[in-house]
Amino acid sequence: xxxxxxxxxxxxxxxPQVFRDPRGYFIETYQAERFRKVGILDTFVQDNQSCSTQGxxxxxxxxxxxxxxxxxxxxxxxxFDVAVDLRRGSPTYGRWQGVHLSDQNHYQFYVPKxxxxxxxxxxxxxxxxxxxxxxxxxxxxxxxxxxxTDLSIKWPxxxxxxxxxxxxxxxxxxxxxx
Length: 178
Fold this sequence. Notes:
mainly beta, Jelly Rolls, six-stranded antiparallel β-sheet, five-stranded antiparallel β-sheet, 1 helix, 13 strands, 3% helix
C-alpha cells in the first residue's frame, strides 16, 4: 500500500495494492497492523455505507464531544470527497482538501478527528463505505454549510440532491465547536 500526506496535517490518502486476474480483483481494504505502521492508530468501531445518485451532496458533518475519525472509500462509482480542518489552533484551520475516490482507483481517505467531512457523487450512482472510530451520536452531530464562500470548496457539479439538514448548517464564521 502507498501513502500520501497533504499540506493539512493528519489527512492521509491510502492507495491499496490491487491484485487483478481474469476473475476480477482482490483488495485488502483494512489491516490494523499495516495502518498502524503508517500512523493511523484509531480503533474503528462502526462501519457505514450509503448509496446516492449523481449530484447528491452529503455533508459537511462532524461530531463534538464524541468526535469520529473516518476511513472512507467508494465501492461503486466515483465521489469527490472533502475534509475541512476544524481543529482549534491548527495553522490550517478552515482549509479543505478534496480527493476523488472511485471503484477504479480504490483509494481510501483517512480523515482524523477534528475535521468536517462530506462528499459529492460524480458518477451516475455511488456506493460509499466508511469506518468510524466512535459511534454515531445524534446529540453530538454538527455540520458546516457546503457552499460557505469563506471555504470556496470547488465541488465538481452543481448539487442536485441535498438534505434539508445539510442545506441549513452554519458557515465557518458562525460555527460553534462546543
